[in-house]
């Protein structure tokens, strides 16, 4: 099974997460079945892509009525979720860190932010939406006590290099990096660099290209 | 030139944006030259990838001393940036919208957030870091008066479908969508769906996979 799962491409994993949010919303509205082309239309992709993704995870369905929404949600849950809830820490409680914490807390996900970290005396010891903020000096202890496996980096970019050693020493297994500094760690730690500036510059680039092509 | 540029893949555009931030930071520190393998190491990729990206944009360099940092920054500027600054509007001034606005304002980019939009009477008419917040009813007028070409969506997910028509009517050319709802618009508008939940669920999935593989 581990080997089968390992063959699922990153982009499929992203889409499964997206399908699931759509399916959960359908389920809430009392929709029991959905056709692949409807699911595809909502996500701006082709029905072939949806069917290919679901084939990759071994899901087959009664095509007369479309996919059973509830069954498909359960199926995706089994692929994406751990049996135990995964605990997440946020490093850096500036505007972005606070926004991310409040955003996730309101989502009812299986992934839960359970601790925040900062070095600012005004923030350490306070709580943000019931999440306690600890000093980075206690990072390793808190990670161990709270069984945290993933951290979100929303610290100032310039301190990122100082965070590498504490993150490795604490045994963190996944890093979602929102800063502008690339985060390089040894193999075995999952890192996703997710810099907002990069994506905005990309959108701006393709807007410019479209304009230039229209002017030609 | 337009045709040459159109052949640049999305991932290369993302990396060019990332290289530029590293190069700007080098320049600030007085570093005048950088080797491809050093730039590659910072970004956790291979030197071959860096050289391939720069070849794609037609940049060649004196390899004895490495790339000239200042020249390469200028070269990337010419590829990525518009001649005029691009103006950006943010729709939805909740925690995430405010965090994004404050984050970008402090970056000194050529892309500038010049207007915010909301429907909450407590926010409309206020300013956030000197950015005025307008009512969505005035969206089209403000976009036209302020020459806004890109919007960032940080509204509640459930209102996204109501934003499609105003965004098309106002002539917006690019959308960076932070909500959990896919944003589908006609061709000709650049859309980047950038849902934080998806990325976090992806990191969690690969963390789980690593653990399962280690236990086998």
What does this structure look like?
The structure is a homodimer of 216-residue chains. Chain A has helices at 2-6, 10-28, 36-43, 47-56, 69-80, 95-105, 139-145, 160-169, 196-215, and strands at 33-34, 67-68, 86-91, 111-118, 127-128, 131-135, 148-153, 174-177, 190-193. By secondary structure, chain A is of the alpha/beta class. Chain A folds into two domains: 2-80, Arc Repressor Mutant, subunit A, CATH 1.10.10.10; 86-198, Rossmann fold, CATH 3.40.50. In chain A, α2 packs antiparallel against α5 (69-80) and α3 (36-43) crosses α4. In chain A, 38% of the residues are buried.
- Name given to the CATH architecture of the largest domain in chain A: 3-Layer(aba) Sandwich
Say which CATH homologous superfamily of the largest domain in chain A is assigned. NAD(P)-binding Rossmann-like Domain
| Form type of chain A | globular
Structural class of chain A: alpha/beta
Order of strands in the sheet with most strands of chain A: 5-6-4-3-7-8-9
Helical content of chain A stands at: 40-55%
Oligomer: homodimer
CATH class of the largest domain in chain A: Alpha Beta
Count of DSSP helices of chain A? 9
Order of helices and strands of chain A: HHEHHEHEHEEEHEHEEH
How many β-strand runs of chain A? 9
From the N-terminal CA to the C-terminal CA of chain A, the straight-line distance is 53 Å
**Greatest interface (CB-CB under 8 A), with counts per chain:** A-B, 66 and 66 residues
What is the domain total for the residues of chain A? Answer: 2
Named CATH topology of the largest domain in chain A: Rossmann fold
Sequence stretches where pLDDT stays below 50 over 5 or more residues of chain A: 1-5
Q: How would a crystallographer describe the biggest sheet of chain A? A: 7 strands, mixed
Give average pLDDT of chain A, whole number.
88
Strand content of chain A: 15-25%
């Amino acid at each position: 099974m581990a080997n089968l799962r390992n063959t699922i491409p990153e982009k499929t994993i992203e889409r499964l997460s997206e399908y699931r949010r759509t399916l959960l919303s359908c389920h809430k509205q009392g929709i029991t079945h959905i056709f692949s082309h409807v699911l595809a239309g909502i996500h701006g992709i082709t029905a072939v892509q949806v069917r290919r993704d679901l084939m990759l995870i071994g899901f087959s369905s009664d095509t007369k009525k479309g996919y059973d929404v509830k069954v498909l949600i359960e199926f995706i849950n089994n692929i994406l979720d751990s049996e135990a809830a995964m605990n997440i820490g946020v490093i850096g409680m500036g505007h972005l860190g606070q926004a991310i914490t409040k955003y996730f807390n309101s989502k009812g996900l299986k992934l839960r932010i359970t601790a925040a970290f900062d070095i600012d005396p005004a923030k350490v010891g306070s709580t943000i939406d019931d999440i306690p903020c600890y000093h980075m000096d206690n990072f390793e202890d808190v990670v161990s006590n709270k069984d945290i496996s993933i951290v979100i980096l929303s610290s100032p970019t310039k301190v990122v290099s100082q965070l590498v050693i504490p993150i490795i020493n604490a045994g963190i297994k996944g890093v979602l990096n929102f800063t502008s500094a690339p985060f390089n760690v040894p193999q075995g730690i999952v890192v996703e660099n997710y810099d907002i500036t990069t994506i905005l510059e990309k959108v701006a680039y393709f807007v410019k290209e479209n304009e230039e092509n229209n002017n030609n």
